[in-house]
Design brief:
Blueprint lengths: L7 E4 L5 H10 L5 E6 L3 H14 L2 E6 L5 H15 L4 E4 L14 H29 L2 E6 L3 H4 L5 H21 L4 E8 L12 H9 L9 H12 L10 E4 L6
Parallel strand pairs: 1-2, 1-4, 2-3, 4-5, 5-6, 6-7
Helix pairs in contact: 1-2, 1-8, 3-4, 4-6
The structure holds NADP nicotinamide-adenine-dinucleotide phosphate (NAP).
NADP nicotinamide-adenine-dinucleotide phosphate binds next to helix 1 and strand 2.
């Protein structure tokens, strides 16, 4: 199967922010976009409307990606219903910021469980189906800080650096089956996740961006759509930075 056939796409954390933009960007006519949310059903309904506006078919469920059994049940049901998964985008992510010496074990575990283990959980199920299909495109959302480091985010940075290593390992395992696995590393993007920053902190962040502006969810979604497209068929194991030059 190639890009032009009716595609089945799975996006985690599609209810808001970057995930919502990815859902719309991948929701071309003929595409079924399965996405999950964690708690925000109303936001998920808005994402579904965006997919429909793009011509795609949205199907959404509440799923905690940190739970291996929940993910296995969810993706098992997707496969039963659709017969395949062409594209998996592991986007769901959280932060629980704090300095290392004050970081609670629960905050370490929560971030690792959602960001890194959630990515592992979804890839494990999708990869089995993709291997049978001899086709698959997996795109994992990392972060610029997973490469550069960031004070106050030891848990988040470790999870995002882990995603890059995980991406490379699985890319090597699956390449011979025509399955590509890549990471996208966003810089500072305007979403709820960054919405808490005050004006002073925002100005300081923008000062670190050579292009002089905050990124939009669409800036990330366009690159994800490229990696999911036939134009990227010979790219695997890579981390594409989309950060206005924050990291070079
Ligand atoms: P966001 O606006 O906070 O949205 C997070 C999404 O993840 C929501 O859809 C949320 O669902 C979902 N989610 C959270 N916990 C989940 C769980 N346990 N199971 C399933 N879904 C869960 O975040 P964002 O800024 O769009 O970030 C998306 C991705 O980009 C994340 O991986 C983040 O680390 C990464 N990133 C963001 C930035 C940035 O500047 N914004 C920069 C670099 C990387 P609910 O709506 O139900 O809560």
């Amino acid at each position: 199967m190639t890009e032009s056939d009716n595609r089945v796409v799975v996006v985690t954390g599609g209810s808001r922010g970057i995930g919502r933009a990815i859902c719309a960007a991948l929701g071309a006519p003929g595409t079924t976009v399965y996405f999950n949310y964690n708690s925000d059903l109303v936001a998920a309904q808005t994402t579904a409307a965006g997919i429909e506006a793009a011509g795609g078919k949205p199907i959404y469920h509440q799923v905690d990606v940190a739970s291996e059994s929940a993910v296995a049940g969810y993706l098992g049901a997707v496969l039963k219903e659709s017969g395949r998964i062409d594209v998996l985008v592991n986007n769901a992510g959280i932060t629980r910021d704090g300095l290392l010496v004050r970081m609670k074990e629960a905050d370490w575990n929560a971030v690792m469980d959602v960001n890194l283990k959630g990515t592992f959980n979804c890839m494990k199920v999708a990869a089995k189906a993709m291997m049978k299909q001899r086709y698959g495109r997996i795109i994992n959302i990392s972060s610029v800080v997973g490469v550069s480091g960031n004070p106050g985010q030891a848990n988040y940075v470790a999870s995002k650096a882990g995603i890059i290593g995980l991406t490379k390992a699985v890319a090597r395992e699956l390449a011979s089956r025509n399955i590509t696995v890549n990471a996208v590393a966003p810089g500072y993007i305007d979403t709820d996740m960054t919405g808490d920053l005050d004006d002073k902190a925002k100005a300081a962040m923008i000062g670190q961006i050579p292009m002089g502006r905050i990124g939009t969810p669409q800036d990330i979604a366009g690159v994800v759509a490229f990696l999911a497209s036939a134009a990227a068929d010979y790219i695997t194991g890579q981390t594409i930075h989309v950060s206005g030059g924050m990291y070079m």
